[in-house]
Specification:
The protein is elongated. 21% of the residues lie in helices and 20% in strands. A 7-stranded mixed beta barrel has the order 3-4-10-11-9-8-5. The longest helix has 20 residues. By secondary structure, it is of the alpha+beta class. It has 7 helices and 16 strands. The protein folds into 2 domains: 166 residues, Phosphorylase Kinase, domain 1, CATH 3.30.200.20; 131 residues, no CATH class. Strand 10 and strand 11 form a beta hairpin. This is Protein kinase domain-containing protein.
Length: 341
């Protein structure tokens, strides 16, 4: 479906925090023969996106600060705004009417000064690489296991700086640092995380392979949509053939060997969210876990001498990571986007 047009050309209208004028941005020309603006999720047909105050690593920046960002600072992190869609652009003299519907929410990652800054161009290249990856490898699971990607849009800002803006669906708060082991960490929340990984494996054939404590923002949970999303595919690889054997959404008192469970990553995530206890299956008094193991070895007798249980391995939970509330995709998750004004 084609992107909406503004004045006869594809465009998106954005009102940045602290600005008085709405700016029109046009789609990037991608360095890929089969990708253009219509390769991405379609933006709302009318209206504009209004952003919240931006952050970098948990710190807010007012208009005076962020409009000079990347002109005076040296950083390889994009400036990130939350954003909400407003259905129509009000005139200078009228107040925008209140809407009874919850607005569509976005995360906007901005690379500034892309025309003549080495840092700005490098950041734009990172955004382009991410956008192409989402289109080539993740199109089948956007909005289900990963946030939707709306493409990269370019233009001159209200403060007269050329920028490239990556627009994505708002994914929610980091599960590991903000939700895990709190009252919001319900059984349904944990199942939502597993459901996202399962879709990533089954529909996209992607193994995420990024579960270190330094990546505590790679699992997001949106309490409005009641869905989990996965981000940061810097270590992912395609072509995964998921061989899951055991029921994924059950709670288990101990860990079976990886081949018995069928998928090492899904077993790791099950442990990570607390669906599988970090203990040996041999301690299960019901014998259910032993039955899974016995069945596997009956079907694969040649594997019995080679299979070990890694119950002594620790699963990174994200504890001890700096609490800057910023995910690996650069999106700060401290505030809810739907509070944008």
């Amino acid at each position: 479906m084609p992107q909406p047009e503004i004045n006869g050309r594809p465009g998106v209208a954005i009102l940045f925090h602290g600005c008085t004028d709405i700016t029109i941005f046009r789609p990037l020309r991608y360095p890929h023969p089969h990708i253009d603006e219509n390769s991405f999720a379609t933006l709302p047909p009318t209206g504009y996106i209004r952003t919240t105050v931006p952050r970098i690593r948990g710190k807010k920046y007012d208009y005076a600060s962020y409009t000079t960002w990347q002109l005076d600072w040296h950083t390889d992190t994009p400036l990130v705004f939350g954003g909400t869609h407003h259905p129509r652009i009000p005139s200078q003299t009228e107040r925008e009417p209140a809407s009874t519907e919850r607005p569509q929410r976005f995360a906007l990652k901005l690379a500034a000064n892309v025309g003549n800054s080495r840092m700005g161009k490098a950041l734009m290249e990172k955004l382009i690489d991410e956008a192409i990856y989402y289109t080539v490898h993740l199109s089948s699971v956007q909005g289900e296991a990963v946030p939707k990607h709306y493409g990269i849009w370019c233009g001159i800002t209200d403060w007269d700086v050329p920028v490239a803006i990556s627009i994505m669906q708002w994914g929610g708060r980091p599960y590991l640092s903000h939700i895990k082991d709190t009252k919001d960490d319900t059984l349904e929340t944990r199942k939502a995380v597993l459901r996202a990984y399962h879709a990533l494996h089954q529909k996209a054939g992607i193994e995420h392979d990024n579960h270190s404590a330094a990546s505590d923002g790679h699992i997001l949970y949106d309490h409005v949509e009641e869905k989990a999303y996965i981000v940061d595919f810097s270590r992912a690889f395609p072509g995964h053939k998921c061989a899951l054997r055991m029921p994924l959404f059950d709670e288990y008192p101990g860990i079976v060997p990886d081949p018995v469970f069928g998928c090492r990553e899904l077993l790791l995530v099950s442990r990570l969210v607390g669906m599988t206890r970090n203990a040996s299956y041999l301690g299960d008094p019901t014998g259910r876990m032993q039955a899974f193991v016995d069945q596997y070895f009956e079907e694969h007798p040649e594997a019995e001498s080679d299979v070990e249980v890694d119950s002594d391995d620790e699963v990174d939970s994200g504890d001890g990571v700096d609490s800057d509330n910023e995910g690996p995709d650069g999106v700060d998750r401290e505030d809810e986007v739907d509070s944008a004004e």
